[in-house]
Structures are given as structure tokens and as C-alpha cells.
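quick one if you have a minute, typing this from the bus. theres a chain ive been looking at and ive put its sequence and its fold in C-alpha cell form underneath. please have a look and point out which stretches look like helix strand or loop to you. anything you notice is useful, everything is just below.

***
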Amino acid sequence: MISESDYEFLSDLLKRHSGLTLGPGKQYLLESRLPPVAVTFGHPDLPTFFRALRAGVPAHVVKTVCDAMTTGETLFFRDTKPFTALENELLPAAAKQARATGRPIRIWCAACSTGQEPYSIAMIVQKLEPMLAGTRVEILATDFSHAALARAKAGVFNQFEVQRGLPVQLLVKHFTPVPEGFEIKEELRRRITFQEINLLHPFPGSWQFDIIFCRNVLIYFDVPTKKDVLERMSRLLTRGGSLFLGGTESTLGVTDTLVRVPSHPSGVFCRPADLSLVEAGSRAA
């Protein structure tokens, strides 16, 4: 059993370093996910490992603990509606603005996990290339977890993973069978730049995006952390830019720097000043 003192200590450590808020009664998560981490760093049990953490350990050990506790649930074309909106409305609208200014379209997947989301976006981008008419699309995929990013970069998925949300025709088109399962073809992999990013840390000052996906990650943060992340993300959006949140996520009671776009049932948000522009762009797309 994990003591109350150890649980409070680990909860605080996770919140400070990853933003993850456990809340009461989640000891079982620590008990199920951290024993392998303890053994990896030479500790026979969790109490011994927790004593070492309290005494101070290198940053990479803390990072490994946070990685182990991060939920990496994802699948191709998850929830469908955001990807339909991206294909039919947001990407065509962004292409018109990009052509008018002579710049590329920039898309950020802010919690890409093992890569199914950015690869789903890349499939849509490739499908729309005739409409894009040469407009370059840059896809940045980031995650807190080094292990998840390594899997995403490798682009290899097992039978179970490709059966979750991926139409068979896209499997045939974009994957090559390998002994481990199915590997994303190089043509699709090179469309994406992967980078390790902690959402709690300041974003690079040069970042600007037409579309941001930050889905099903803020639900693990407390309200002040959500507010901080969302307000910093809002400053990264280009004029008329859009942000996707998860189906159960909202900015209500968190921040007024982003508002839901009423014409989109798929969790699309934008800055209040850009609301009419986003809606007009979607209708024209």
C-alpha cells in the first residue's frame, strides 16, 4: 500500500513537472504503473523508490516517472468529427489565407502521443493536395513523453492499433506490412516534425499556427494550469486560426481568450475577435 504521505508527495511531483492532477483515490495508478520504473532505477519496491525521489534524483528519473503516469490513449481519426471539419472546412479556409500571404499552413498536434493523430492529419493533407495547389503544409507533433514520441517517429503500429479508426483503404495506401505489424510509408512520415515539448513550459516565441489540436489532454490539468496553457496557445494562433479541444473539453469558466465556434459541433475554438472570420471562412470553404 502507498502511504498517504507518499501519495501526496507523488501527486505534487506529477503536477509540478507534467501538469497531471491525480486527485484523491488514485493510488492504484501509482501501484500499477510505477513498479517497473522503480526496478529500472535499482529500487526493489515503491517505498524505497519514493524515499529516493524525496531525497532528490536526476531530472531524467523524474521525467521517467511522469512518462509512466501519462495516459497515452489514442487512435486514428479519433472521434471523426474534428477530422471531417479539418478536411471540409478548416484546411481549405487556411489554404486560401496562406495563398494570399504566400506562407505555409502550419498545424500543431500538441499532445500527439504515439502519433495516430498527426498521421491522420497527414493523410488528409495528402488527399487534399490538388486543392492546396502547391501550398506547403507544415505539421508539428509534440508530446511530453519521450517514449511515446519514439514510437510515433518509428511509425510502426500493430494489428490492434491499425484496426482502431483506420479505414482499410487507408491502411493499404499508407502502410507497408512489417514483422511488427504495419509501418507508415516514408512519404507520409516526412510530412511531420516530431519534437518533445512540455506544455507547462514557455512556447518558442517564433511559433504561429493556423490550426492547433490539443485534444483530451487538458482534462488531466487543474483549472489554473488549463487557463495558463490555453491563453498561451491562443497567442500562437494566426488571424482566423482555430483550436481543437476534446469532445468533453471547454473553455467556459477557464478563460475568455478562446470561444467555441457555434457552427462547428466538433470542439473548434478561436479568439473572440476572429469568430466571424472563422465562421465566414468555414462557409466559404
